[in-house]
Specification:
Helix content of chain A: 55-70%
Number of helices of chain A: 24
Distance between the termini of chain B: 24 Å
Order of helices and strands of chain B: HHHHHHHHHHHHHHHHHHHH
Largest sheet of chain A: none
Largest sheet of chain B: none
Number of strands of chain B: 0
Radius of gyration of chain B: 23 Å
Distance between the termini of chain A: 46 Å
Number of helices of chain B: 20
Helix content of chain B: 55-70%
Strand content of chain A: under 5%
Oligomer: heterodimer
Shape of chain A: globular
Largest interface: A-B, 61 and 52 residues
Structural class of chain A: mainly alpha
Structural class of chain B: mainly alpha
Strand content of chain B: under 5%
Number of strands of chain A: 0
C-alpha cells in the first residue's frame, strides 16, 4: 500500500468501475479508504478466471485453452516422420488401425501372412485394438489409402497426419477431459486436505495443472500415442474412488488396464485402497466380491473374442509381456539403467533371474504404501499411494520406457494443490528425462514452448502456489545443483559432440540426474504418505471413509 | 505511471510470455506469400544500399511499405548473418530451410515486444486509473493478431505497438511525443493515414489552441517541425536519390480494384451485392443489362466498371465517403478534445477507413479491434460491443488460413478467446454491479444469466457457426464444386453486417458520450 498516492486517487473513486475491490469497501468514508482499496496490488492481478468468475464457463475456458495447446503441439512432427523403413510410434498406431480394420480379431495377435508381428505387431491389450479399429474405420471413411491392408505400410501424407492427429485429439477430449473435470469436482467436493480458501481459489489452477501436463501433451500430440485414453480412464477411476463410486472406479480402472498394460503400475494402490475400504465396512467379503465381480466381468467383456480357446488368450498375453526385450530398452531414468554403469545387469544375469529381481524390487518398493492403504485408507493417502506405486514400477520394474514417467506424473498432478513444489520439481525433471526423445523426434521447439507454458501457468499471477517454500540458503544451493546441471546438459546435449567411445554419454548423464531426483521424490512421497496417518489421526480418519 | 514492478505490469508480462510460447508453437504452421515478401525485404534491406530499395525488382515482392518499415527490416536483419548468411543474400532461396522460417518467426515474436511495452505503459489510463488486467490481456492474446502475424506472417504487432505508444503519450498529455510517434507510425505503414485527420484535429485543438496566439503558434510550429523531422528522416534519402515518384508509386498502387481478392466485410460488399441483385431483377423485368467485363472475384479491376447498374466507385468517392463518415468524430475532437476519448476516436477513424476505403484488406480490421480492446472494459456496453466485434473480426480473417492443418487452430483460438471474454466480462461486471449496485442505474446494465450480449447478439454469433458449418460441410454436398466463391461471399456478407453494426455503434457512442 502506498498512502502517499491516496489524494490523487480519490477523484477516481467516483467513477470507479474496476472489479478489483473484492472487499467492497464502503464509499461513504473515502478519506479513510486507503489507496490499497482502489488499486489493491494483489487484486490488480486478479485473473479473469478467478472467482467470482462463474465456474462452468471457467472450466470451459480452461478446457478450451488446454485443447488449443494440444492442437498447436500436434502441428509439429511425429515420431519417425519420414524415417523409413521402421518409422516410429505414429506408424505403429497407423499399422494397428490397418490390421484391426482388415483382419479378424483372432488374427490380431498372431503372426500370419498379413500380420508380420516383427513389424510393429500389436502389443497392447484388446481395448487398444478396439480403439484402433474404431479410429481405423474413421480414417478409412475419408482416406482409405492410409489404412489399406499391406499397401499402406509407411503411408505418410499431410492428410493422414492430420486425420490421425485428430483421432488423438478427440480421444483426449472425450476421455481425459471429462475425467479431469470429474476429478476436480470430486476433489473439491471432498475437500481433500485443503482449506476453504484453497477450495475456492485453487480449483482452476488444479484443473489447469492436470489438463496442461506438458509431458502428456508432448507424448500424445507430439510424439504420437494414445496415453490420454488409459490415463483418462485411470483418472476417471480415481475420481470414482474419491466420489465413492467404487464399482464405477473398478470398471474404469479395469478398462484402463485393458487399454495399456502399463496401467497396472497403479494396481497396488487401487487394490490396497479398495481392500482397505472394504475391510472397514460391515460385510467386507460381500464388498470384495462385488468389486471382484465387476473386475472379472469387465475383463471377460473386453477379452471375449480371445476367450474361445486357451491358446488364443495365451497368445495375447505373450504379446503383452515382451520379456525378451531386456530389462530396459532405451535410456530411461530408472534403477536398472542408472546402476548399470556400475553393475552390468544385462551381462551378469539371464532374463529369468532378472525378472525375479525386478519383481521383488518393485514389490518391496510399493509395499510400504500398500500396507498403509490397507491399514488406513484415506482419499489423500490413496493419491499418494498411486504415486508411490507407479513410481516403484517406473524405477524397478522390467522393460520400462522413458514415456512411462507419465504414469507417476498423473497422481503427482492430482496432488498439485497439496504438494505444489514437489509437482513443479517433478514435472521439470520428467520433461528433462524425455529431452533426448524429444530431440530425436525433432520436437525441441514444442518442448521449449511446453516447458515455458507449464511454468508460466504454474507461477500464474494471483496464485500463491509454489511460493511458500521457506528454506535456508544452503538447502537452496543443494537443491539448485541438479537444476543447474540439467540446464547445462540441455545445452551441451545439443551443442557438444559426446566422446567417441561413449556416444550416449549425455543421455546417460541426463538419465542419471533424473533418476536421482525421482528417487528422492518417491522417498519423500512415501514419507508423506506415512506421515499422513499420524497427522490425520488427530483430525479423524472416518471423515474420508 | 505504473512502476515497472507493480503486480499489474508483471501480470501483463506474464500474459505476454504465455503468448510467446503459443507463438513458438505456431512456428511450423502455414505461412502466406507475405512470408516470402518479408523474407525478401529482409535480404533486400540488408544486402543492398538504400538507393536500390525501391528500385530493385529481382523479386516480384517489391518493397511497398514506407521507409521506416524498411529501416525496421534492416534492423531485424542485423543478426541474420550469424544464423545463416543465405538468409540475407539476394536472390533469396526459393524454398527456405527451417532455420530461415524460425528466424523470421522469431523476429515477429521479438518485434511484439514493442506491443508489450506499450501495453505495459497503458496499464494506467488517461485518468491514472488501473486498467483491468483483462483489457491488457485482450490485446496481448488477440487471436486475430496471432493469426495474422504468427501464422499468415506480418508485423502488425510492431505497428500496433507504435499506435498504442502514441495513445499512451496522448493519454498522459504529452501531445508532442504522441504526434511524433504517430508520424513515425505513418512512415512505417501508410495505411494508418486514415487516422491522421483525427490526430490532426485533436492535436491542433488540445496542443495548440486555448493558450493564447503566440504560445499556440509556437506550439503549432513545434509540432509541425517534430512531424516534419520524422518525415524527413524517413524520406530524405529518397528525395536525395530523386526517387520520390518511384516511392510514391510503390506506396499507393491505385491500379488495384475496389475490393481485395477476398472481399473485406465492409460497406462495399453490400454495394456489390445490391448491384448484382438489382441487375438480376432488372433483367427479369426485361431491361437489357450488360454483364460487366470486370469481375470482382478476380480481384483486379481495370478501367471498366465492374458494376452493372449502380454507379462506378472511384478512389475519390471512397475517400470522400471516409471523410464524411469521420466528420462527427472530427467535430467532437475539435469541440471537446479530451485525452480520455482519443482511443475511441482513432478506432472510429480506422473503422471508417475499413468500412468505406479503397481496396481494403480484411486484416485492416485489426487496426481498430486492438485499440478497442483497451477500452472494452470501460462499461458494460463497451464490453458487449467488443465481444461481438472481436469475434466477427477474427472470424472474417478465417479465409486467410485456408489449409486444413490450421483449421482447428483458428477455431480453437477464436473459441478460447470468446470464452475468455465471456468469463472475464461476466465476472467483472457481476462483481461491479454487486459492489456498486446503485451506481449502475441503467436497467439493462446488470449481467443476468445468459443476458450478457442479449438474444439478438447471441443469435447473430450462433449464425456464424451456422455459416461456418454450411461452408465446411453442406456447401460441398449441395453445390459440389460449382460456386466456389459462395462461402467466401457469405462470410464477407455476414461479417459485413456485424461490422456495419460496430461502425454504427461506435458512431452513436461517440456522438452521445464524448
Amino acid at each position: 500500500m502506498k498512502p502517499d498516492q491516496g489524494p490523487t486517487r480519490l477523484s477516481a473513486i467516483a467513477s470507479f468501475r474496476d472489479p478489483q475491490g473484492p472487499e467492497g469497501l464502503p464509499m461513504a468514508k473515502p478519506r479513510k479508504t486507503p489507496t490499497f482499496a482502489i488499486d489493491p496490488p494483489a487484486a490488480a492481478t486478479r485473473l479473469p478466471w478467478h472467482p467470482p468468475a462463474p465456474p462452468v464457463p471457467t472450466a470451459l475456458l480452461i478446457s478450451l485453452a488446454a485443447l488449443l495447446i494440444r492442437v498447436l503441439v500436434s502441428v509439429g512432427p511425429y515420431s519417425g516422420q519420414g524415417a523409413a523403413p521402421k518409422f516410429g510410434d505414429y506408424e505403429a498406431q497407423r499399422h494397428w488401425m490397418e490390421l484391426t480394420l482388415h483382419l479378424p480379431a483372432s488374427d490380431w495377435y498372431r503372426n500370419t501372412s498379413d500380420n508380420d508381428l516383427a513389424y510393429w505387431g500389436l502389443d497392447y491389450p484388446p481395448l487398444s485394438a478396439y480403439q484402433s479399429l474404431l479410429h481405423g474405420s474413421l480414417v478409412n471413411a475419408s482416406l482409405p489409402d492410409a489404412v489399406a491392408l499391406r499397401s499402406s505400410r509407411g503411408y505418410e501424407s499431410p492428410e493422414s497426419k492430420l486425420l490421425l492427429r485428430w483421432t488423438v485429439l478427440s480421444s483426449d477430449l472425450l476421455v481425459f477431459f471429462p475425467a479431469a473435470l470429474w476429478f476436480v469436482w470430486a476433489y473439491m467436493k471432498g475437500g481433500i486436505g485443503i482449506s476453504g480458501e484453497e477450495r475456492r481459489e485453487g480449483w482452476t489452477w488444479l484443473l489447469a495443472m492436470i489438463l496442461i501436463s506438458p509431458c502428456l501433451v508432448l507424448i500424445d500430440h507430439g510424439h504420437f500415442q494414445y496415453n490420454c485414453i488409459s490415463l483418462g480412464l485411470t483418472l476417471g477411476a480415481i475420481a470414482g474412488v474419491l466420489s465413492r463410486n467404487e464399482l464405477v472406479a473398478a470398471f474404469l480402472f479395469t478398462l484402463a488396464i485393458n487399454h495399456k498394460q502399463m496401467s497396472l503400475y497403479f494396481a497396488p494402490a487401487f487394490f490396497s485402497h479398495l481392500l482397505g475400504k472394504c475391510l472397514k465396512r460391515k460385510y467386507p467379503i460381500v464388498e470384495v466380491m462385488k468389486l471382484a465381480f465387476v473386475v472379472l466381468g469387465t475383463f471377460a467383456l473386453v477379452w471375449w473374442p480371445f476367450l474361445h480357446s486357451y491358446e488364443a488368450a495365451l497368445q495375447v498375453i505373450y504379446r503383452l509381456a515382451p520379456f525378451e526385450r531386456g530389462i530396459y530398452e532405451d535410456y530411461v531414468a530408472n534403477f536398472w539403467f542408472s546402476t548399470s554403469v556400475l553393475i552390468k545387469w544385462k551381462r551378469l544375469f539371464a532374463i529369468k533371474p532378472l525378472k525375479l529381481m525386478s519383481l521383488s524390487a518393485t514389490i518391496l518398493a510399493f509395499l510400504p504404501s500398500f500396507v498403509h492403504q490397507v491399514k488406513s485408507p484415506s482419499n489423500l493417502g490413496f493419491l499418494y499411494s498411486l504415486m508411490n506405486s507407479s513410481f516403484s514400477f517406473y524405477l524397478f520394474s522390467y522393460q520400462v520406457h522413458e514415456k512411462s514417467i507419465l504414469l507417476p506424473l498423473l497422481p503427482a498432478s492430482l496432488l498439485a494443490l497439496k504438494e505444489p513444489q514437489m509437482y513443479g520439481w517433478f514435472v521439470y525433471f520428467a520433461l528433462f528425462s524425455m529431452y533426448p526423445l524429444m530431440c530425436r523426434d525433432q520436437l525441441l521447439l514444442q518442448y521449449i514452448a511446453m516447458l515455458g507454458l507449464f511454468f508460466l501457468i504454474y507461477y500464474s499471477p494471483g496464485g500463491n502456489h509454489g511460493k511458500k517454500l521457506n528454506i535456508s540458503c544452503g538447502a537452496k544451493v543443494i537443491l539448485s545443483l541438479p537444476f543447474v546441471c540439467s540446464l547445462l546438459l540441455h545445452i551441451s546435449y545439443l551443442q557438444i559432440e559426446p566422446p567417441k567411445r561413449y556416444p550416449f554419454f549425455f543421455d546417460a548423464l541426463i538419465m542419471f540426474i533424473c533418476f536421482s531426483q525421482f528417487a528422492i521424490l518417491t522417498l519423500y512421497t512415501n514419507y508423506k504418505q506415512w506421515m499422513l496417518d499420524t497427522h490425520s489421526r488427530s483430525i479423524g480418519v472416518k471423515k474420508d471413509l | 505511471m505504473a512502476s515497472p514492478t507493480s503486480p499489474a505490469t508483471s501480470a501483463a508480462a506474464w500474459a505476454f510470455a504465455a503468448a510467446t510460447c503459443v507463438k513458438l508453437l505456431l512456428v511450423p504452421t502455414y505461412r502466406s506469400t507475405d512470408f516470402d515478401v518479408h523474407r525478401y525485404w529482409l535480404a533486400l534491406t540488408h544486402a543492398l544500399p538504400a538507393r536500390q530499395w525501391y528500385t530493385d525488382a529481382s523479386s516480384q515482392w517489391t518493397l511497398d511499405y514506407p521507409p521506416f518499415f524498411a529501416y525496421f527490416s534492416r534492423f531485424l536483419s542485423l543478426p541474420a548473418p550469424l544464423v545463416d548468411a543465405t538468409l540475407v543474400s539476394i536472390p533469396v532461396p526459393d524454398t527456405p530451410p527451417f532455420a530461415h522460417l524460425l528466424y523470421l518467426r522469431l523476429t515477429v515474436a521479438f518485434s511484439d515486444l514493442l506491443l508489450l511495452g506499450s501495453v505495459l505503459l497503458l496499464a494506467r489510463d488517461a485518468r491514472r486509473r488501473q486498467r483491468p488486467f483483462l483489457a491488457l490481456v485482450l490485446v496481448l492474446w488477440s487471436p486475430a493478431l496471432l493469426a495474422v502475424d504468427h501464422v499468415h506472417f506480418q508485423y502488425n504487432g510492431f505497428l500496433m505497438g507504435l499506435l498504442l505508444l502514441s495513445f499512451y503519450f496522448l493519454e498522459q498529455g504529452w501531445d508532442l511525443a504522441g504526434g511524433v510517434v504517430f508520424a513515425s507510425l505513418l512512415c512505417s505503414k501508410h495505411l494508418f493515414l486514415v487516422a491522421a485527420p483525427v490526430y490532426f484535429m485533436y492535436l491542433f485543438r488540445h496542443y495548440c489552441c486555448g493558450r493564447g496566439v503566440v504560445k499556440g503558434l509556437g506550439r503549432l510550429v513545434l509540432m509541425g517541425s517534430g512531424v516534419a523531422a520524422v518525415f524527413a528522416a524517413a524520406f530524405a534519402p529518397f528525395v536525395y536519390y530523386g526517387q520520390m515518384q518511384q516511392v510514391f508509386n510503390r506506396l499507393f498502387p491505385f491500379g488495384r480494384g475496389l475490393c481485395h481478392a477476398y472481399w473485406a466485410p465492409n460497406f462495399w460488399v453490400f454495394y456489390i451485392m445490391l448491384d448484382k441483385i438489382l441487375a438480376f431483377l432488372l433483367r427479369r423485368l426485361g431491361f437489357n443489362i450488360a454483364i460487366p467485363e470486370a469481375s470482382f472475384t478476380a480481384g483486379l479491376v481495370g478501367d471498366s466498371s465492374p458494376f452493372a447498374v449502380l454507379p462506378k466507385v472511384t478512389p475519390i468517392t471512397t475517400f470522400l465517403l471516409v471523410i464524411l463518415a469521420m466528420i462527427p468524430c472530427l467535430v467532437k475532437a475539435f469541440s471537446n478534445p479530451q485525452p480520455k476519448h482519443i482511443i475511441r476516436w482513432v478506432s472510429y477513424a480506422c473503422t471508417c477507413g475499413f468500412m468505406f476505403g479503397w481496396h481494403v484488406h480484411e486484416k485492416a480490421s485489426l487496426h481498430f479491434t486492438i485499440p478497442l480492446a483497451l477500452i472494452a472494459m470501460d462499461s458494460l456496453n463497451d464490453a458487449r460491443h467488443y465481444f461481438l466485434l472481436s469475434i466477427v473480426s477474427c472470424y472474417s480473417l478465417f479465409p486467410l488460413l485456408f489449409e486444413n492443418q490450421e483449421y482447428l487452430i483458428k477455431v480453437m483460438l477464436l473459441l478460447t478467446y470468446a470464452a475468455l471474454m465471456w468469463v472475464g466480462f461476466t465476472s467483472h461486471f457481476a462483481a461491479n454491479s454487486d459492489q456498486e449496485g446503485k451506481k449502475v442505474n441503467r436497467p439493462g446494465s446488470t449481467v443476468k444469466k445468459n443476458g450478457f450480449i442479449g438474444w439478438v447478439g447471441l443469435s447473430y454469433l450462433l449464425g456464424i457457426a451456422a455459416i461456418e458449418l454450411w461452408s465446411r460441410v453442406f456447401h460441398h454436398h449441395v453445390f459440389g464444386d460449382t460456386l466456389p466463391f459462395l462461402p467466401l461471399i457469405m462470410v464477407s456478407l455476414y461479417c459485413g453486417v456485424g461490422m456495419m453494426y460496430s461502425w454504427m455503434w461506435q458512431l452513436v457512442c461517440i456522438v452521445r458520450h464524448t
